[in-house]
Specification:
The complex is a heterodimer of chains A (312) and B (327). Chain A is α+β, with helices and mostly antiparallel strands. Chain A contains eight helices and eleven strands. With 327 residues, chain B is α/β, with parallel strands linked by helices. The chains are: A alpha+beta (312), B alpha/beta (327).
Chain lengths: 312, 327
């Protein structure tokens, strides 16, 4: 028996003793630590910050994000049959109804807008740790608070807001944000809905003075699969002017109060307008998950081939 | 190089989405399990969820006003939660309808309260003093006391003690006016909504549910047009704080707190479905033919149900019958 074997025996004995101690400890001392009584600031990597004014690049989906989508264009959206039906029944005149006039885009759609995005930090006055990141969105003058202190989301029966309730955490140099409690809104603002059951995960990826924003929306009501959109932003080198949204609803039309403009099934007069204008089959314009993917181009080619009349 | 790094980061992040969500704090479990949750709405008003139906409580120096008493199964828990919010006594109970899940706790909650009375010479004052008055529309009262045939009769201690007929019935508790307004032929013929004016909160009972299509009880005098009129009336009473958000809050009979915009979307849905079914009736379609067109398809994933006490089919059938009856 050598010294090595003796040491091995000692090590082995120590391990057995340690294991025995662990097993014999009361269950309470092995219980996971209780969460803090109230949220507390979580230290984050001090070298990462999004603070400043960011302005969007419009090299993706310019026409839809600026001018707005064409009616009955649902191409590239992973929508359910129910969402499609709602889109086809939506009459843009709905926006003339008094209570609809001042409605705001929900946070998943807001990121697509031409707007200044001003990030700033809310710090604990004593520790100076970041409690939250505040995001002021110039469009519709909305403010999002991204809580960074680990607090839980509100209960199911709490009110929803346009911006929702957001919590965030740094994952390396990426700010990942989870948002719930969003009001009903649009996936695309031509009537395709996003329900109030939708949630969103975002990743803000900064590299220098450029930021890529990735938004992944999950809607169990109106989407068949998560919908991913990206936007790029640049850090503004100056302080830009600011839009102000002071909206007051007014009754401008000589129309019945409490009206709800909509199209009955089969009576939407614009249903094939986009398809005809762009020379694509109506089925493509009606969207669905398959229209998101590059492979759909192959199917589109087949669909657009001249049909050979059947021989008599 | 930057592009490759960005693409790699993007792919990693999207792939990790499933896991990153789980790392965030979780929402509490569904409250409809007898575990009573209290949420401060605004002003003096709180909502209690988990007692079978939502309970609204207004709290202040004068005591507690309670709107709806739950189904009676969890009254002890409800009272315990109210005790945590205040030590002041319950002063009044208001029923938004005669539905069992709203009045089941009437007797127990009123029994826990104290009525504000003057001296009564002819009666034993203790009988009134240690029992809160229960206010409801007289149609709800008649359904509970056996006057209306076909409805189960409740014990007398659960009956409304202060029924009103035309309304609005007006109270002033805890430094704010309270309007109890009868909305005819909506969910039933005995519906009341309760407007806390300073707190700017309206408790609307089963005229509105955030989880189902509106429950319309034809046998008890409900109707589709009455439901739409009621939703329009509620909309007229609400003022949003800014950009169609906040301001007046609405507590439904079941589900979460709404504001004006959400009542608006709910109203829009009910009108659209009504219009579709009405159009098909004009085209002489049968009920089965109407159901086959799926007039609620765009809302089913949000509000529909194929099983349970209120299914999509039941809603369509109710709207159909209500429209035929109105012809």
């Amino acid at each position: 028996m050598g010294r090595g074997l003796c040491l091995s025996r000692i090590a082995c004995s120590f391990c057995l003793l340690l294991a025995g101690l662990l097993v014999s400890l009361p269950a309470s001392s092995q219980a996971p630590p209780k969460p803090p009584a109230k949220p507390r600031p979580v230290p984050g990597p001090s070298e990462f910050s999004l603070s400043g004014n960011w302005v969007p690049y419009f090299h993706e989906d310019l026409l839809e994000r600026g001018n707005g989508p064409e009616l009955d264009n649902y191409l590239g959206l992973p929508i359910t049959d129910g969402a499609r039906k709602m889109g086809l029944s939506w009459d843009p005149s709905r926006m003339t109804v008094e209570e609809h006039q001042c409605q705001v885009h929900v946070s998943p759609y807001m990121n697509r807008s031409p707007s200044r995005y001003a990030f700033s930090e809310i710090r604990d006055p004593e520790t100076q740790l970041v409690i939250a990141i505040q995001l002021y969105i110039e469009n519709y003058q909305q403010t999002r608070i991204i809580w960074m202190d680990g607090r839980p989301h509100p209960p199911d029966f709490a009110p929803h807001t346009w911006m929702g309730f957001s919590t965030g955490k740094w994952e390396g140099n990426v700010l990942t944000v989870y948002t719930t409690h969003i009001k009903q809104g649009f996936i695309r603002r031509n009537g395709i809905p996003e329900s109030d059951k939708a949630t969103m995960i975002e990743h803000y990826i900064r590299y220098g003075d450029i930021m890529t924003h990735v938004a992944i929306v999950t809607d169990p009501v109106y989407l068949t699969e998560p919908f991913v959109r990206t936007n790029d932003f640049a850090l503004a080198q100056y302080t830009p002017g600011s839009w102000v949204y002071s909206c007051e609803p007014v009754e401008e039309l000589d129309a019945a109060k409490n009206r709800v403009p909509h199209y009955l099934p089969g009576e939407n007069p614009f249903v094939d307008e986009f398809a005809k204008k762009r020379g694509i089959p109506l089925a493509a314009a009606m969207g669905g998950a398959e229209t998101m993917y590059p492979e759909y181009q192959l199917k589109l080619e087949e669909m657009m081939k001249p049909q050979t009349p059947a021989k008599k | 190089m930057w592009r490759a790094a960005a693409m790699l980061a993007f792919a990693t992040i999207v792939g990790a989405t499933v896991f990153s969500r789980a790392a965030f704090a979780q929402l509490p479990q569904n409250p409809d399990t007898g575990e009573i949750h209290a949420l401060h709405v605004q002003g003096n008003v709180y909502m209690l969820a988990g007692a079978g139906s939502n309970i609204t409580v207004q709290i202040g120096e004068q005591g507690v006003s309670v709107v709806d008493a739950g189904d009676g199964k969890y009254t002890d828990q409800v009272l315990a939660v109210i005790r945590k919010l205040t030590v002041k006594p319950i002063r009044v109970v208001i029923d938004t309808s005669s539905d069992p899940d709203h009045v089941g706790g009437n007797e127990a909650i009123a029994d826990a309260g104290i009525a504000i009375i003057g001296g009564v010479v002819a009666f034993n004052t203790e009988d009134f003093q240690n029992y809160s008055p229960i206010i409801a529309h007289e149609n709800a009262f008649n359904r509970m006391n056996g006057t209306t045939r076909g409805d189960p009769q409740w014990p007398s201690r659960a009956w409304p003690t202060d029924p009103y007929s035309v309304g609005p019935k007006k109270l002033f508790y805890n430094d704010e006016g309270i309007e109890i307004i009868h909305l005819p032929a909506a969910h039933s013929d005995g519906d009341s909504i309760v407007f806390f004016r300073r707190s700017d909160v309206i408790s609307v009972g089963d005229i509105l549910s955030t989880e189902t299509y509106p429950v319309i009880d034809l046998k008890r005098g409900g109707s589709i047009q009455g439901t739409i009129d009621a939703l329009n009336r509620i909309l007229d009473m609400t003022i949003s704080r800014q950009e169609s958000e906040g301001g007046t809050y609405i507590i439904p009979g079941h589900g979460r707190i709404y504001d004006q915009f959400e009542v608006l979307e709910y109203r829009d849905m009910v009108v659209i479905i009504r219009d579709r079914i009405q159009d098909l009736i004009k085209k002489n379609k049968t009920l089965e033919e109407i159901k086959a067109t799926r007039p609620t398809e765009d809302y089913d994933a949000r509000y529909g149900a194929t099983t349970g006490p209120w299914t999509t089919d039941m809603f369509i059938e109710t709207v159909y019958k209500s429209l035929l009856a109105a012809k």
